[in-house]
């Protein structure tokens, strides 16, 4: 059920049986990274940490196996975290994104993030979610102060004034100073906290799939804002891309019912169809002065899709944000605390930033001789993460609403946003920095 450690080692760290300084619920990308960050911290060498994961222990797949259709766009900031944790060297396959092309449905204006930039820095790295978890768990095996409970859930949680009592399945009772919820958008820990949670659906479904393309240099991410939602291609290797197509529930049902050949035709048409004529967009654009003597437009089509490599999958999209990330003896990280639309690829990166911020706050508290779960320390983490997360979450929500609006003027403003981002260098530079930070 869990990684065994010697009784001697347990007693040397803490004399109380079944006691953990930190217990983390959820062993996905964020929860496992949180366990590793604490497990490798010199300040936690003599602390006991538990990671509770509902799924079984996985056998890492061979790197020649088919790609998974669930991937993440890891930004340079998250890459630095993986380097610090010793994980980056364990990734067997990932694809570097050097450029990003973004355009809409009503004009040919295109944002080309690489063009005109003096920086040769990478924009992102496309990595399968399973690859991230496998690499983190592999590195976690070297942390003797971390116990991992597989096939396990929190059955009962009692919040005390100075600690938390939890029951794992129906067999194991534990006490911990700090309970960390990394158990996803439907977080049980968040519900136990009884904090206000702002959430709403986007009336959209995301369809994901792995696609084979005509072989070519493949280090560009493509995204087009369609009237029903954005469609994106993320590079995996020279012949493979990952699709994320966000659209209305009704259109999603139609797309999922198509034959593989019909689905491929729909994707190619979505990317390569001509701009839709819109009088409001044209009128407003003509009022603008030219900000560049050489406006840049889409001068090549994205990859031509040949076939579907993996089965299609779909999931509903929504927004969510907890008013409080912390309460006495408990903290939320990742999707447990916040949920965003995938159009900007920032959701998982916000979670990794939570890992950094919580690790930093807990470490500073221990260095100053304070209790691990002291509320003031947890509030410091909350302030750091909310200050970083909220502006990005609001911006993503606004972008979604602008580009899916039925109001002509709003659509026009969205098209102008693309035009201005490409032609006004400071705006484009700022957008690239935000995407990479």
From TrEMBL:
Annotated compartments: Mitochondrion inner membrane
Superkingdom, natural source: Eukaryota
Stretch forming the signal peptide: none
Catalyzed chemical reaction(s): a 4-hydroxy-3-(all-trans-polyprenyl)benzoate + 2 reduced [2Fe-2S]-[ferredoxin] + O2 + 2 H(+) = a 3,4-dihydroxy-5-(all-trans-polyprenyl)benzoate + 2 oxidized [2Fe-2S]-[ferredoxin] + H2O; a 2-methoxy-6-(all-trans-polyprenyl)phenol + 2 reduced [2Fe-2S]-[ferredoxin] + O2 + 2 H(+) = a 2-methoxy-6-(all-trans-polyprenyl)benzene-1,4-diol + 2 oxidized [2Fe-2S]-[ferredoxin] + H2O
Keywords associated with the record: FAD, Flavoprotein, Membrane, Mitochondrion, Mitochondrion inner membrane, Monooxygenase, Oxidoreductase, Ubiquinone biosynthesis
Co-factor requirement: FAD
Protein role: FAD-dependent monooxygenase required for two non-consecutive steps during ubiquinone biosynthesis. Required for the C5-ring hydroxylation during ubiquinone biosynthesis by catalyzing the hydroxylation of 4-hydroxy-3-(all-trans-polyprenyl)benzoic acid to 3,4-dihydroxy-5-(all-trans-polyprenyl)benzoic acid. Also acts downstream of coq4, for the C1-hydroxylation during ubiquinone biosynthesis by catalyzing the hydroxylation of 2-methoxy-6-(all-trans-polyprenyl)phenol to 2-methoxy-6-(all-trans-polyprenyl)benzene-1,4-diol.
Assembly behavior: Component of a multi-subunit COQ enzyme complex.
Name under which the protein is recorded: Ubiquinone biosynthesis monooxygenase COQ6, mitochondrial
């Amino acid at each position: 059920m869990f990684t065994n450690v010697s009784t001697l080692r347990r007693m040397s760290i803490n004399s109380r049986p079944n006691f953990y300084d930190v217990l983390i619920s959820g062993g996905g990308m964020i929860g496992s990274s949180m366990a590793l960050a604490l497990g490798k911290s010199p300040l936690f060498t003599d602390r006991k940490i538990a990671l509770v994961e509902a799924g079984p222990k996985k056998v890492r797949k061979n790197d020649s196996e088919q790609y998974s259709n669930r991937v993440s766009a890891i930004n340079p900031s998250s890459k630095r975290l993986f380097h610090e944790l010793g994980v980056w060297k364990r990734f067997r396959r990932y694809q570097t994104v050097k450029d990003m092309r973004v355009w809409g449905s009503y004009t040919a204006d295109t944002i080309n993030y690489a063009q005109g930039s003096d920086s040769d820095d990478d924009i992102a790295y496309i990595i399968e979610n399973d690859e991230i978890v496998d690499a983190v768990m592999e590195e976690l095996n070297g942390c003797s102060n971390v116990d991992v409970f597989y096939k396990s859930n929190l059955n009962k949680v009692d919040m005390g004034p100075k600690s938390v009592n939890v029951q794992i399945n129906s067999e194991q009772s534990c006490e911990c100073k700090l309970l960390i919820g990394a158990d996803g958008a439907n977080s049980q820990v968040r519900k136990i906290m009884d904090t206000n949670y702002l959430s709403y659906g986007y009336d959209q479904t995301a369809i994901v799939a792995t696609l084979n393309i005509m072989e070519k240099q493949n280090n560009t991410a493509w995204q087009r804002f369609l009237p029903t939602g954005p469609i994106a291609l993320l590079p995996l290797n020279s012949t493979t891309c990952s699709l994320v197509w966000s659209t209305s529930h009704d259109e999603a049902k139609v797309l999922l019912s198509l034959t593989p050949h019909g689905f491929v035709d729909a994707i190619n048409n979505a990317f390569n169809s001509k701009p839709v004529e819109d009088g409001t967009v044209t009128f407003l654009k003509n009022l603008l002065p030219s900000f560049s003597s050489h406006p840049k437009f889409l001068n090549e089509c994205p990859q031509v899709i040949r076939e579907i490599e993996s089965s299609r999958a779909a999931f509903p999209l929504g927004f969510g944000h907890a008013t409080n990330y912390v309460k006495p003896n408990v903290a939320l990280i990742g999707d447990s605390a916040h949920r965003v639309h995938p159009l900007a690829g920032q959701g998982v990166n916000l979670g990794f930033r939570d890992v950094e911020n919580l690790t930093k706050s807990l470490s500073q508290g221990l260095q100053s001789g304070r209790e691990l779960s002291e509320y003031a320390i947890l509030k410091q983490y909350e302030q750091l993460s909310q200050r970083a997360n909220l502006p990005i979450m609001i911006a993503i929500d606004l972008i979604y609403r602008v580009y899916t609006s039925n109001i002509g003027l709003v659509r026009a403003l969205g098209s102008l946003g693309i035009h201005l981002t490409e032609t006004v260098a400071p705006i484009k530079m700022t957008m690239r920095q935000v995407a990479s930070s």
